[in-house]
Structures are given as structure tokens and as C-alpha cells.
Design a protein that fits this description.
CATH class: Mainly Beta
Largest sheet: 8 strands, antiparallel
Number of helices: 0
Order of helices and strands: EEEEEEEEEEEE
Shape: elongated
Low-confidence stretches: none
Number of domains: 1
Number of strands: 12
Radius of gyration: 20 Å
Distance between the termini: 39 Å
Helix content: under 10%
Length: 182
Amino acid sequence: MSSTRNEDLGNVNSFKNYGLAYKYYSGKWVGIQVGINYAEKGYLRYTRAYYDQQDLEKGYDLVDISSRRFQLVEVPFVTQFHYELWRIRAIANAGVYGSYILRSQSVALHPDFQPDNFDFNKFDYGLRFGAGLAFMLHPLEIQLDFAYSIGLGYIYDPNVQGYTVYNRLSQMLLSATVFFVL
């Protein structure tokens, strides 16, 4: 997640990203890929804990405040460029995605802080880029790729507490997909 507010944010790792995908090659080197996925994205939010409250110049530690995870349904639509050599395809993807956040879970990781509770049942959208390899083992095609999603929708209301905060979800994804060649 990225934010214009002066916060230290970290990543949350998740293995929840699975779904169905369909790929169609319309030309020799170009195709489209569309899918529907159940995914999890999230972030860690940190705060600064100072060694000495009288002298803030002495230094600080980062103390994690909370963790938030979003469970969502996502529909990616990407154009796929590929180059085939023997039974291996080098692929590059570029496209868009739309998602709907089904639920969110916040956990306070520091005893002095309470988790925030916001209604996150909302739509998100963004751009997706990726690259990888596909192995052709007829009647199967196994695709291994890395993708990066950049969120363009705001997760929180940008005008919270009298100042503007822009915040977007982003995700790095390493995936394996099995396609059945028809």
C-alpha cells in the first residue's frame, strides 16, 4: 500500500490468490488473458517509538501498530505478448484489473493501540504488468509468471480528519497457472 500521509508502511505476505483463467491467442504473438480470482492483499502500519520523549533527536525504533488484510474478488484483463521457442513461451503482460473488497480484518500488534474499523466493502481498480514463462505440454500449458498490480482507487476516504490522504493498494504476485489446451 502507498500513502501520502507520513506513515511507515510494510507488506503483508499471503498465499491466498487462486481462481480461474482463460487465454486466447488472436495472432502469432499477441493474445488476451482474463480471469476471476479470490485474493488477499494487505499492509502493516508502523509508528515511531522514541527512546526518550524529552529528546526526540536521540533516535527511535519502528514499532508495528496494526496489520490489515483485505479479502477480495478480482477480475484481471491483460494483453499477453509472447515469443515461442520450441515448447517454451516467453510472455509479457499488460492490462487492467477490477476488484471488490469482500471483507477486511485488522489486528492490533502493539498493546497500546486499538485496530481501526472501517467499512471496506468497496470497489478497487488498477493496472497490472507482468512477465514469465509458459511450458507447452499438450494438452496442458503451465504458466509461471510474476505480476505487479498498481491500485488506482482509494482504500480510505482521502479527506479524513481535515487533511488529504491518498492511499492505494499494490501487490507483487508470483503465480503458477495450468491451462487446458482445447
